[in-house]
Every structure is written in structure tokens, then in C-alpha cells.
Amino acid sequence: xxxxxxxxxxxxxxxxxxxxxxxxxxxxxxxxxxxxxxxxxxxxxxxxxxxxxxxxxxxxxxxxxxxxxxxxxxxxxxxxxxxxxxxxxxxxxxxxxxxxxxxxxxxxxxxxxxxxxxxxxxxxxxxxxxxxxxxxxxxxxxxxxxxxxxxxxxxxxxxxxxxxxxxxxxxxxxxxxxxxxxxxxxxxx
Length: 189
Hints:
By secondary structure, the protein is of the alpha+beta class.
């Protein structure tokens, strides 16, 4: 059962009481989305947190009529418009499936209610949000301080499957390079 697998994963982050696990099961949903489904739209307030069970998603924003990929979500990754959830303002980016995907999701309001009732879930949420922030900062530092070649090598080392699974235009955008530069880097490595 997929929910049980997710709960086991959560228990590796921090131990959860049986009561907290039961309450969490009541608020977690698993849904299958076809490829190219928009699960969060830019300029609309976010209401859900997603965890990728299967498939591939990307977060992106549109600037000057150009889509810029901010991140990819693979199985086990939490994806959401975090700043929108926390500020109650419209999301600055969209989230779409790049493959048929199964995603766990939970309403942010339900999560906050769980935090009030179960402090072990509050701790889990804090730890997951901390990891989300650290991952986002690492990606931002890479864009600001690494050369395009270093960013490509990092991608090859950490997520080589993205080069086969994601459209190369999205990968180039994520790396902050042109598709032509990506082609040259792929030929070199």
C-alpha cells in the first residue's frame, strides 16, 4: 500500500505515533495525473502540498512569455508553491507533470490542523520544510556560483535520469543555459 510506504519514509525522518499516523492517513490522498497536467498555476494561491510517488514533475515560472524551469520533482520529493502556502499570496510559479504521475497530496489547512493536534507531525513538517528550503538554496547557489559546465556535471552526478526523462529544453532552462549549450555539453560528456 503506497500510503504505508510513505508513512515508513516519514518515520525515517522522525518517529511518528500511531495516532499521528492514523490522522495523517485521513488527510493524505493519492491521485494519478496524466502527462502535462497543471497541478498548480502561477498567479493562483496554492492550497496543497504534493509528494511525488511515481513519475516526474517540474516547477516553472513564466517571464516575458518564456517558461523557466525552477526545479524537478522525482519520486520521494515534496513539491509545492511554498511561498504561496506560507504567505497566502498567489504562487510565483506553476507545477506540471512531465510524465504520467502518481502524487500524494494534502491540503495545507489540513496539515496545519494536524500540527495543532500532533506535535510529532509538526516536527516532521518542520524538518521537511527545512530540507525543502536547503534544497532550494543549493539550487540557487549553483545557478549563481557555478559555471554552466559545473551545473551540468552536478546534474549528471545527482540526477542523470533527468536527461532521459525530461524534455531537453526544460533541462537547459533549469540549468540556466541555452539548448545549444546543453547539446555541446552533452556531446562533451
